[in-house]
Design a protein that fits this description.
Blueprint (H helix, E strand, L loop, with lengths): L2 E5 L2 E4 L4 E8 L7 E7 L6 E6 L6 E3 L7 E6 L4 E6 L8 E8 L9 E4 L3 E6 L1
Length: 122
């Protein structure tokens, strides 16, 4: 079992930056692909970015490629999402997830955090 806890969310003005962190416990994340997703009110969960267990390859949705960057530090058992140039439409609950393979589909991931709220004011 893997327990994931997101942190780093909050209120930020448009154009600002946030760095989200996802800390894992129970098992090391070194053997897992990790992903970041978000869900806005009334919307379906949206894929943002994923990283392979080696950390060598990363993937990002076209909608956030560039402004958002995923990374991992297996020695700290943590995955990060650096979010720059934030826009009001980025307001959502952000989730990290762990799975066998880095994919864009949420149902492919086995473990999920509780989420952290990100609110971007205009």
């Amino acid at each position: 079992q893997v327990q994931l806890v997101e942190s780093g969310g909050g209120l930020v003005q448009a154009g600002g930056s946030l760095r989200l962190a996802c800390a894992a416990s129970g098992r090391a994340i070194s053997g897992y692909a990790m992903g970041w997703f978000r869900q806005a009110p009334g919307k379906e969960r949206e894929f943002l970015a994923a990283i392979t267990w080696t950390g060598i390859r990363t993937y990002a949705a076209d909608s956030v490629k560039g402004p958002f960057t995923i990374s991992r530090d297996n020695t700290k058992n943590t995955v990060y999402l650096q979010m720059d140039s934030l826009k009001p439409e980025d307001t959502a609950v952000y989730y990290c997830a762990a799975g066998r393979v880095a994919t864009t589909f949420g149902q492919d991931y086995n473990y999920w955090g509780q989420g952290t709220q990100v609110t971007v004011s205009p």
